[in-house]
Every structure is written in C-alpha cells, then in structure tokens.
C-alpha cells in the first residue's frame, strides 16, 4: 500500500506540470521510493525547455577512442568530459562505464557515446565521442562505433607499448580511411618509456614522432593537446542537411518504460519530434516521441541535424525492431539504404537453462532484453532431457559469454545453468537418404548432442582463426610451445624491437576459447597479448566425448575434441568432475568415453557412517559383518535411485585447466 507522502509526490509532480502550462505529460524513468514502490517522474514533450544543438557542419567532430585493454581509454574519456565541462572535476573513475559488471571487472564492455561542447579559438564545437571496449571479444562494438566516426584516438600504454589489439584497432580504422591520432598514455609512470613506444609505432605503422601526442590521462597532462588535435586533424562529417532525413542505427538498448532506444548517426537531413519514420529493414512506421543528446546525462532536444549522433525513442516494443545497421527515413520520403556493416558472427556457443522450469518465462524475458542491448549474441531455442526447455546462445568469445551471464544475474536477478561452450563444426555426409533427411550433403552443428554418426560422415571440418601474439622475446619459447600444443601452425615472426616480437599463427578456434588466453598470460607473466580473427574451415578428425555418471550419459557435459587429444581431455574431465561434484551418500562412478570405449574413470567415494560404533567393546565379529553388509546393500539401492546434484559452474569449469 502506498504511503500518503508517496501519493502526494506522485500527484504533485503532475500538478506542477499542469501549472507550467504543459497539457500533456507522460512517464519517464522511475525512481524507487523508500519502501520499494515505483514513483514516476513526468515531463512534457511540448515543453519550451527543450534545448537546441544546431552546430554548423564544419564545427562537428565525430571520433572514437580505441586501444588495447587497460591502456587508459576510459580514463582519457573522463578527462575530456571534465575539460569540456560535461562533468565536474573528480566526479569518479570511468564515468562512461555504467554497468556493474564493468565496474567490478575494470573493463569496458559496452561502447558509450557522449556529446561535448568545446570552445576552440573563440568558436564552439560539438565533439561526439564514443568510448569503445578493448578486449577482442567486444571487437564488434568497435566496428559499429567506427561507422559513425571520421577519426579515432589510438591510445598506447607508455609502459606496455603496442599490443595485439592495438594492431587490430589500427588496421580497422586504417581500412575505413579514418584519421588516426596516435597518443601515448601513462607517461607519468615510473617505468614509462615513451621513446621506445614511438619507435614501435614507426616500425609497425610508419607513424612519425611529430604526430604522436604524449599524455597522462590520470594527471591530465597534455590532454588539452588531444582536444586540439581532434578539432584540427579530424575532418567534419560529409553530410547534406538539405536532403530528406536518412540515418543509421549503430547501437540500441532497452528501457523499461520507453521500449527500445536507438542510437543513430544522421547522414542527411534533420529529424524532429512527432515526425514519422520508417525502418528499411522491418518496413514498420514509428512516431518520434523523444530525441536525446547524451552529455553524458540525457538532454531532450526538439531536432537532430545531419552530422550529429543522438538517440531516438519511438515506442519500439520488440527487440527485433531496433536492428543494428538498419537505415531509417521519413514516412513517404524513401531513400537508398546507407552502407551498414556485416552483423557480428558468433563463434562460441553454449546452452542456457533455468534452474527450475517455473523460472522459464522470467529468464526468457531477461535474455531478450539483454540480446537487444547486445546484438552480437545469437539466440535459438533448445531442449534437453535433463535440463528441460532452454536456449542455445552464440557469443564472440568466452569473456563475452561470462559477462553476458553475469549481467543476467546482476541486472535481472536470473540464475541460469550454463553448459560447456563449443564452436560450430561442419561435416560432409554420404548416403542419399541421409542427404535427403538433412537437406544437404554438408551439415553444421555446435551442440555435442547433435554430433552426427561417424559412419555416415566422410569428412569433419573445424573453424580456424588467424591469431596475432605480441610477447617479450624472453618468453618466446614457452609461447611457441603453447601455440604448438594447441595445434597451431606458425605463419610469420617479426621483431618489433630488441625486446619484443610479434607472432602470427593459424589456430583451431576450439583450442583457444577456453583457457588459451589465461595460459598465455601465465606463461608470459602477463606481458603477452593476443588477438584473433576468423580464418575459415579446414578438414580435421573429431570425436565426441561423453560423460557418464553411474552409467547415465549426461549430454550437457559432452564435448567435441580432436582425436589426438581425446585421451588427455578425457582424463582431465574425469579428474575435474571428481573435484567439482559434491560427495553423495553412495558411490558415484565418473566415466568419460568415446562411443563404447571408456577412456577415463574416477570414483567419487560416498560419505560413510560408522554403523558399528554402538557395539560395546567392539562386539561380535558376526554382528559387525551383518551391520556392514546391511549398510552396503542400502547404499547399493540408493545408488540405483539417487539423483546426483551438479553445481551450476560444472559445465564450464570441467573444461578449464
């Protein structure tokens, strides 16, 4: 029941709107009351308070900050926000990292946009900044962000130097003909060596020393030179405001009350509230309810103009409506679609199931909301005899999957069961009836439960990646050994300087998604970095490892491995399950097999109660044997009917080293 003061707050806000002459009001975001009830705030779409941000095209700059993980992108973004007055000084670390998972892990997961006002030589500029993630699993965020930019700030750590993701980001921006502003960060550190990093930039990218800006984002040293370089070097957007409106959706997220919010780049014309737009991808029409500029807090405007980056809210209720890469235009004014970008290709797949089927609906809603916020995730329905109805989700990597599941728990209170990750394989099959049943002589599968019968398969194929590793020279031996252990094939080796070397390998994707990155960091004391990209499929020999608990096959723990590693992985899985599965009142036999052949076995011993403890002075030997025999028979019966409870983490941990 609502308290009197809450009822007063709820209605008094509406009265204030009416007294200001606003005839229409509606709900915005909710602020939670003291007792947990939602008290709604209101505003008017007809308010005269809507701000105007109409800058000449020549005074607009759109740019991104790109770098390897932990090279200082978000810290630099904080300083730029402070220097342009968007936030107050010392307002907190990583202002644009808003997700709880980002604060806990200390990494950027979601690209964030903010519009800054900057006064340069007496003229005011609009700088649209996009802060991007640095981990390879979130490279699609960088790819989308660059579609709305004309330049990038490439940040390199003065201590660590050029890393694998630095190389990937440079060539991504270079391939899009964007202006690149090289920036060396953390020059205030004790072990900083900016001169060495300058040589690396020249050796790898032919960047001259005079073009490099040396800064300390944490201390604010020389950050003003970065802002000046953005204005002087990055060109204004090539747009036309006299043509009909045409915009590109390059990001979106879900709001509880307003539906899907789309982040758009305006390539032509202008867009105002109450106008009707049409999506080329879906063909649906929407009325513009709100236009928003992020500074970084939302500021509502009446009109957005070509060259700007802003948000639109138009009551998109379905996650499929806000299609990333879609072109939108005004109703009855058709246009040619803009050149978008290929959708992110999922590389790692895992099953997600509710702990109890009664939680299926709530988990489905949570997954749909997060999939809208993260368009790189693919989604399909899946069923399991043991776990019931669930979903098969595709991710860009293992970290991407872990972050997604962590957001499910933190933002939606869901506690799903996650199966072991796998990749997409291909198989060529024989037999007219088999080809007719599958509709083709080539089938794809990413679930071990769908592993085809080897008798009808002529050839298996697995996905490969082109991996780039940058490591100190003294760790070259262990890193090479790790790559060869993972069935890698060396392609090239190049010295960056006297102390560091860049390696390129073709590696099986299945070998690197679980523990390759952790192993690489461990062998190199954290100094080596790794980046990869898709490299097609090659023929291989595969087998399916099945896990049996007391003779019962657990499909959710099955995995697909290369033939040469089957025995090694089987022994590892059996030992890992022995550590993870809780002890029971009965013996649990853990077996890993290929078909009918058992490759590894471990026995999980049961809890044991001393049933002879009540016998006085040891008791008669026959009495002792009788009690022990009764106990053994009881445990044997219990083993036949007992259920084995598996922890949620089992499905991923079993494959980790």
Automatic annotation (TrEMBL):
Give the source species: Fopius arisanus
**Protein's job:** Promotes mitochondrial protein synthesis. May act as a fidelity factor of the translation reaction, by catalyzing a one-codon backward translocation of tRNAs on improperly translocated ribosomes. Binds to mitochondrial ribosomes in a GTP-dependent manner.
Question: Would you identify the family this protein belongs to, as annotated?
Answer: Belongs to the GTP-binding elongation factor family. LepA subfamily. Belongs to the TRAFAC class translation factor GTPase superfamily. Classic translation factor GTPase family. LepA subfamily.
Can you say what this protein is called?
Translation factor GUF1 homolog, mitochondrial
Q: Where in the cell is it found?
A: Mitochondrion inner membrane
GO BP terms in the entry: positive regulation of translation; translation
Catalytic class of the enzyme = hydrolase
Tell me if Cell division is a UniProt keyword of this record: no
Organismal lineage: Eukaryota, Metazoa, Ecdysozoa, Arthropoda, Hexapoda
Q: Which reaction does it catalyse?
A: GTP + H2O = GDP + phosphate + H(+)
């Amino acid at each position: 029941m609502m308290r009197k003061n809450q009822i007063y707050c709820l209605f008094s806000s509406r009265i204030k709107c009416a007294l200001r002459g606003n005839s229409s009001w509606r709900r915005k975001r909710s602020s939670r009351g003291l007792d947990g009830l939602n008290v709604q705030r209101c505003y008017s779409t007809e308010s005269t308070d809507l701000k105007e941000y109409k800058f000449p095209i020549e005074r607009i700059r759109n740019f991104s900050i790109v770098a390897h993980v932990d090279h200082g992108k978000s810290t630099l973004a904080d300083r730029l926000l402070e220097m342009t007055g968007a936030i107050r000084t010392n307002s907190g670390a990583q202002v644009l990292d808003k997700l709880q998972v980002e604060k806990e892990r200390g990494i950027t997961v979601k690209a964030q946009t903010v519009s800054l006002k900057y006064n340069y030589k007496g003229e005011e500029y609009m700088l649209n900044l996009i802060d991007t993630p640095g981990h390879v699993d979130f490279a699609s965020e960088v790819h989308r962000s660059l579609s709305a930019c004309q330049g990038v700030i490439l940040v390199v750590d003065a201590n660590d130097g050029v890393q694998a993701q630095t190389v990937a980001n440079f060539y991504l921006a270079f391939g899009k003909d964007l202006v690149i502003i090289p920036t060396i960060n953390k020059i205030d550190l004790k072990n900083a060596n900016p001169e060495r990093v300058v040589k690396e930039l020249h050796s790898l990218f032919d960047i001259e020393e005079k073009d490099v800006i040396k800064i300390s984002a944490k201390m604010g040293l020389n950050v003003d030179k970065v802002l000046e370089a953005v204005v002087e070097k990055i060109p204004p957007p090539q747009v036309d405001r006299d043509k009909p409106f045409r915009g590109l959706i390059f990001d979106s997220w879900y709001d509880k009350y307003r539906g899907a919010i789309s982040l758009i780049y305006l390539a032509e014309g202008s867009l105002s509230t109450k106008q009707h737009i049409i999506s080329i991808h879906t063909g649906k029409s929407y009325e513009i309810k709100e236009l928003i500029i992020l500074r970084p807090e939302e500021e509502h405007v009446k009109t957005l103009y070509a060259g700007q980056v802003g948000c639109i809210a138009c009551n998109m209720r379905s996650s499929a409506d806000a299609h990333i890469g879609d072109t939108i235009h005004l109703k009855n004014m058709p246009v040619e679609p803009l050149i978008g970008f290929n959708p992110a290709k999922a590389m790692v797949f895992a099953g997600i199931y509710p702990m109890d089927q009664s939680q299926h609906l709530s988990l489905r809603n949570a997954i749909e909301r997060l999939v809208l916020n993260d368009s790189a995730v693919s989604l399909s329905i899946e069923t399991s005899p043991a776990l019931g109805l669930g979903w098969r989700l595709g991710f860009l990597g293992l970290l991407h999957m872990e972050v997604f599941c962590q957001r499910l728990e933190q933002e939606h209170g869901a506690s799903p069961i996650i199966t072991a990750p796998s990749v997409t394989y291909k198989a060529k099959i024989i037999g007219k009836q088999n080809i007719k049943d599958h509709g083709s002589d080539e089938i794809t599968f990413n679930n071990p439960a769908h592993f085809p019968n080897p008798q009808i398969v002529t050839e298996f194929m697995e996905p490969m990646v082109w991996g780039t590793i940058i490591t100190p020279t003294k760790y070259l031996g262990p890193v090479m050994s790790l790559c060869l252990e993972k069935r890698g094939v060396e392609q090239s080796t190049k010295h960056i300087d006297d102390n560091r070397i860049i390696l390129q390998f073709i590696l099986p994707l299945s070998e690197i998604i679980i523990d390759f990155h952790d192993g690489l960091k461990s062998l190199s004391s954290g100094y080596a970095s790794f980046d990869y990209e898709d490299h097609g499929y090659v023929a291989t020999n595969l087998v399916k490892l099945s896990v049996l608990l007391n003779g019962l096959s657990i499909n959710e723990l099955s995995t697909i491995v290369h033939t040469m590693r089957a025995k090694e992985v089987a022994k590892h899985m059996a030992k890992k399950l022995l550590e993870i599965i809780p002890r029971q009142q009965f013996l649990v036999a853990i077996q890993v097999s290929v078909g009918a052949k058992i490759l590894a076995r471990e026995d999980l011993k049961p809890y044991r109660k001393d049933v002879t403890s009540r016998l006085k002075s040891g008791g008669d030997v026959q009495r002792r044997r009788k009690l022990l025999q009764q106990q053994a028979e009881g445990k044997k019966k219990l083993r036949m009917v007992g259920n084995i409870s598996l922890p949620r983490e089992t499905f991923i941990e079993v494959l980790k080293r």
